[in-house]
Amino acid sequence: MKDQINKPSSSAGMSRIDGRLKVTGAARYSAEFTPAGMVYGVLVGSTITKGTIRAIDTKTAERAPGVLKVITYLNSPKIAGYQVEAGKPEPAKGTYKLFYNNKILFNGQPIAVVVADTFERALFAASLVKAQYSADGHHTNLIDNTAKAFAAEGDGTTKRGTEDAWKTAPVKLEQEYVIPSEVHSPMELHAIIAKWDAEDKLTVWTKTQGVQDTRDGIATIFKLPKENIQVNSKFVGGAFGSALQVWPHEVAAILAAKVVKRPVKLLLARADMFTSVGYRPYTWQKIGIGATKDGKLVGITHHAIGQTSTYEDFNEGPIGVSRTTYACPNVNTNYKIAALDIGSPTWMRGPGEATGAFALESALDELSYQLEMDPVELRLKNYAETEPESGKPYSSKYLNEAYKLGAEGIGWNNRKSKPASAIKDGWLVGYGMGGGMFGAYRDKAAARAIVTDNGILTLQTAVSDIGPGTGTAMVAIAAEVMGIPAERIRFEMGDSSLPQAPSQGGSATTATVGSAVFQACTDLKESFQKLIGNGGTDHPDYAAVLKKHNLPKLEATAASSGGTERDKYAMYSWSVHYIKVLVHPSTGVVKIDKAVCVADSGHIVSPKTARSQIVGGAIGGIGMALMEEMVIDDRYGKIVNSNFADYHVPVNADIPQIEAIFVNKPDPYINPMGAKGMGEIALIGMAAAVANAVYNATGKRVRELPITPDKLI
Ligand code: MOS
Q1: Ligand 1 centroid vs 560 CA: distance in angstroms?
Q2: What pTM value is reported for the model?
Q3: Letter string b/e over residues 606-639, b meaning 16 or more CB atoms within 10 A of that residue's CB
Q4: Inside any domain, residue 147
Q5: ipTM score
């Protein structure tokens, strides 16, 4: 691909364009708009886990002060998109249908929405809604229900070479690994404000990773023309996959607004964030792995069983890592899901790969000790020069450099190869590493670039920014192409009426939307060159050119495709995490002393936000390793730690110095910037790196996350 931006960006040190708005509170999130006449919705959740509603008493709630309406399945208007065509059977599986019938499928399932003139009155009235149920027996424990697991569509079950070849290897092991359910836990709660502008015209402000996908989702559910729906999400206070779909609370607010003929705001409580917007599924995995005495992999067998709900088959394919990360002649993988009486899981940062990499990168570490070989050397010994499954060449892969940079950064040569043999100031010291990979994707997108005669460049595209600093990266790309300083560039997004953009997910935004911004700016620059004629400079004084030609502005809208290079090349981003831990021998407390995370994610478009992206993902990985665990009391099928006192996420005191290092070499094929994704690889492999460091420190191998002190003493 031509037109590479290989040189460091002129805006290398650029800070977040919206940083000031965010830290001063001037940024307005979805719950912070106040359309005239707005009222408040509060959901009532089921207190049983499985069964049917026999009766709901809404009378007391309806008589409470300020209450406008209580909506349940009994009086809910029919939702067009839920209805089954006459004569057709009810589909067996699908997304959850709000207020559809009297069936209870999980604990906390919304059974009513109460609408009142203030939030407090709605909340109080919600406490007065009483349901009577017929409860059925329920199942919420994956390990007790693995026998019920079934193969999901497109589950990644494959066989390469000989099945179970690892068993024939001279050095081998077979182990089981478990990760619990984890909850996204962004700072900003999910919230929506729904306002009907006419009988069939709707505006919403909602937390979403994609304003246009949310628009399309609402259009399907309510059978509205897409163009009648306006979705706004200007700022998003974190979303790690939880805002990639239209959830029941959004349907409830839209429905309620229609019924009461007023705009309705519905904000989830923190506890609802555990039941209502998905989570990373509890997953059991078993790996068999074998190698020759000099460390060449002979075979890997990777089986996994994850949980899903009874109404939807969620499948995140955690076994993919074993097929595509290392050179290995014999690989067979199998993935199944078991339906439990709990809300559906969903995508969560590094979906599939984060889970699979915990097992694979732990198993490799175990193998390295059996081989008495350095874990980095073991990985280099099995380095894949081409994509192991397809045989395609990589579009770019500098993982070997990443291994080296990280080893230097952490001081890997201080690592003792014998576990539990280093102690300092009463703490056991250990070093560990783990790798991550994720497909480097690029999708279709469009962008508009407008230069006005005051010399300001405005960029427009319908992307969301869930935190990585999308606007900052796009401004950096535009600054580079146009030669306009970043301070003179505006970025407009989070509005479904802007040029087409996909949801922010799968680490693809910079590659995808960046390509469109690059193209729009390139086209716009060409229009200026045409105006100027021969002899123009590469970066003219745009304002002067416009004035000279009596034009108020010049604009270009460009679309970019997913590209065809993917047919020829395997595209991945790579990471490696190095960890130094201290473990207290008598209390089992684990302190992360230092983390070094190296990313091979192509050219770094925006170094400051890229660093934040890696640090944020690393913190997520540390949480996964040491703290995060959704706990269900299986007797009642209820989540018992749905708050931040009991569901632990890392806080500042838990996080040491994290060094983010970038190989920073452009990928020649993925897009004009040479930029690959980094959102997912920031987390993938981190939990194993921590577990491996804990083993090195203590000699204790923890195969079930999180690594809490009780597992080490
Ligand atoms: Mo992510 S799980 O692609 O938001």
Answers
A1: 22
A2: 0.96
A3: bbbbbbbbbbbbbbbbbbbbbbbbbebeeeebbb
A4: no
A5: 0.97
